[in-house]
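User: structure tokens for this one?
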Amino acid sequence: WDSFNGRIAAKESVDIRPRVGGYIDSVSFSEGQAVRKGQVLFTIDARPYKATLASAQAQLQRAKAAQALARTQDRRARDLLADRAISAEEADNRAGTLAQTSAEVMAAEAAMAAAQLDLGFTEVRSPISGVAGRAVLTAGNLAQANQSVLSTVVSQNPVYVYFDADEQSLLRSRQQKATNGSGGAGAAQVRIGLANEDGFPHTGQVGFTDNRLDPQTGTLTVRATLTNDQGLFTPGMFARVQMQGRSDFQAVLIDDKAVLTDQDRKYAYVVGEGGRAERRELKLGRMFEGRRIVES
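Assistant:
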């Protein structure tokens, strides 16, 4: 297993911002507690938006009345034109008036729909289920539309673990999956331990790898998903991550302090026949549980 350092991250994280501006009337949630999708978190003073909606409704009624009158006059004009009791120009004018009033009705309906949306937006709701943060703005404060951050909501189950895997570890993991016939990167298993835990008691699955290797660091961002049924993981926590690099194999391991360097060559002294020290050239591998793997 290859070891990495990672961070717990929420699968979904949202900054709660109002879609309309106004003074906050009330805060309707407990800070730091779970909220559900669609739950009202903040209420903005709705009186200006109710007045705007009433005005839009009145404009719609006025436009419909004008349309009804124009329709009657147009129908009468067509009858008179058939009897040649009215000029064609006058009939065309009345037809144009009907088309204009019909367009005004459509505009008034759109204005009323927008006013209804704005009125609904005075109730700021959570777009996801999760845990709410603190209320940045409380009752009496002015919230600016699409700008002010009122609070944050982060999902809790499942959670992500992000870590940066080096190129060699990534290649070993892919070689292992190819040998086992387990498919692409999404099939890799990881083991996870928190800062206060011994070993790696939690397991997850790699579900995402970045689409390019960072040439400056030689690493690739990897994301694993794990369940959080017991609420142990909080976004932002440090996590120790292990990813399987290859299947079990036999290897010789020695204390890394016994390895010596002669320019670009690694060697160690081995007690041979007669109790004599013999120099052995080494090809070294990775560290494993405090010891160095000797490949040859």
